[in-house]
Design a protein that fits this description.
With about 120 residues, the protein is of the alpha/beta class. The chain has a single domain, classed as Rossmann fold, CATH 3.40.50.2300. The chain has five helices and five strands, in the order E-H-E-H-E-H-E-H-E-H. It is globular. Pfam families: Response_reg. This is Response regulator.
């Protein structure tokens, strides 16, 4: 199974993601914002990164851009998990290197299906 980093300033969202994905057999690490996520990503290798869009210190879009500069994350899938649904923001995320977009609220089985699909690529 995969090693996944979830980045969100909401502890409850991080916990929900962790419980859902751990139930699917994945190992999940947590980060509280984009800066923390970048630091943890640099220290460990992850098979997938799931990040919120709106966070303090560094937002998800900036984090995706910075991750894509790291050689070990060029081909690693990055999903944005957010309340945002604006088509323009989705285009910006795709241009920054995001693999996909999941809108909150989400169901655990929906999250697992999307993660499995992205990891199978």
């Amino acid at each position: 199974m995969a090693t996944i980093l979830t980045v969100d300033d909401s502890a409850s969202i991080r916990q929900t993601v962790k419980i859902a994905l751990a139930g699917g057999g994945h190992t999940v690490s947590e980060a509280v914002d984009g800066m923390d996520g970048l630091q943890k990503a640099g220290q460990s290798g992850f098979d997938l990164v799931i990040t919120d869009f709106n966070m303090p210190r560094m937002d998800g879009l900036s984090m995706v851009r910075e991750l894509r500069k790291l050689p070990q994350y060029v081909g690693i899938p990055v999903l944005l998990l957010t309340t945002e649904s604006d088509a323009g923001l989705k285009q910006q995320a795709k241009a920054a290197g995001a693999t996909g977009w999941i809108t909150k609220p989400f169901a655990a089985d929906q999250l697992i299906r999307i993660v499995e699909k992205v990891l199978a690529r």
